[in-house]
Each structure stands twice: as structure tokens, then as C-alpha cells.
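The instructor's notes for this session suggest beginning with a concrete chain rather than abstract definitions. Hand out the sequence below and ask the class to guess, before any prediction is shown, which regions might be ordered.
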Amino acid sequence: MIHVLLIAALQNAQPPEAPAAEGPEPLVTDRPDVTESTPTIPAGRVQLEGGYTCTAGEDLLGHNVGELLFRVGVGDRLELRLGAASLAFDTDGGVSGATDASIGVKLRLLEEKGPRPAFSIILQSSVPVHDSDFGGAEPEPEFKLLWSKDLPRGLSLAGNINAAAPVADDGGRYFEPAVSVSLGVPLADRLGLFVEYFAFVPIGNHETSTHYANAGLTFLISPDLQFDIRAGAGLNDHADDFFAGAGFAVRF
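After discussion, reveal the predicted structure:
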């Protein structure tokens, strides 16, 4: 279950906002880190994000291919989010299947002003599409409070406070808070670095907390195209040992 939750979190991940360049504003992605960004897609634009993740833990090597997220700007402060099911498989165990799809919205609440961070929220739910070891039998709703703050010298800080209601392996539903914080560091005009901490802290149903560290690079090819790589590790015994991945984002 923890392995599936980590894949789902990484599928909806992003780095802190990159510094603006001359010309059109560069796209802001919701990958590759776990912390979601506060900006929304401009009205009338569509952004497609996707990638691949490899996860090692509990004597298994897992792969997740696809991670497609369609973000559609439907207003000045609102975007529609549609996550497609991904192909998931464990090479050691020979188990394969599809992850859940997802549907949700992101709403910008407050812009950054003085010492106050920017704030947004995400309301979303998983959508079961296939009976497999990597998907759920019921929808799993989730709420995310997003914040971000620009810092001196081009640095940026962002974080999320989340609450989800996933279904355990025995069919019982439990409450799962989660937190993350991510520091963005510009290395060059088109190259960015992020370092991140995130944790899942489930309550009830005998689930255990998991803690992770994560870091990666983003490469802005053009204002509408970005590539990324990332790698991370579990910080406690119940977390997956290691994960790594790569992906892209393109805006239309």
C-alpha cells in the first residue's frame, strides 16, 4: 500500500516555481517533486505532464510508466486536472496492472504579498479504472493546501499540507495527513535544482508513517517545454528504500 501511495504522490509532483525569463512566461509544472505549485494554468491553455518512476523497496523493484496529468485552464484562478491511469509493474514479482486515474481542480486563493505567501487549494479524487494490485476499488478523495514564497537571491520555498481518505488492503478507510516542503535553487537561466522533504502520516487501520528526502533538476528547453530528473530515498524503515525518475511537461 505504501508503495502505491508513493507512486500516486510522485505522479502529481512538481518543483518550486522557476525564475521568469524574457519573453513569454515559462510554464510552471506540477512535477517532478511531491510539492504542488500554487500557480494555475492560464485560461484557454492546456499543459500535459508525464514521466517514469522506478521504486525499490521490500525486495521488489517497481516501475510506473505514464504519470500523465492534463491541466486545463478554465478561468483566471481555476484549472481542471485530469490524471490518466499509468502502467505499473514489479519486475521481481511479475505483477503488473494499472494505477487509478484522477480528477480534480486547483483554485488560486491569494497571491504573494509582502511577507504573506501565495496560497492555493487542490480538491481531487482517484477514479478506479481497473481491478489490479496498483489501483483501488473505491474513489479516494484528497484535499491539498498549497503555499509558496519567493526568497532572496532567486530562491523559492513551497509546501503542502494534505488530507486524504485512502482505502487499506483490508477494505477499511482511514485518514492520512501528509506534509511536504521544497526549496528551489536556480543554477542557470534554464536549469533549476530542488531539494525536498515529504511525509505520509496515516491515522488508524494499523498503517505506518513514511518519510522521504527528494532532489532533482529541471531543464527549461523553451517557455512551453521542460524536462526533469529526480531521485530520493526513504528516511525510515517503513518507507521505500529508493526511487528515481524522469519526465516532461509541455504547454499548448
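Then share the key points. The chain has one domain: 2-251. The radius of gyration is 17 Å.
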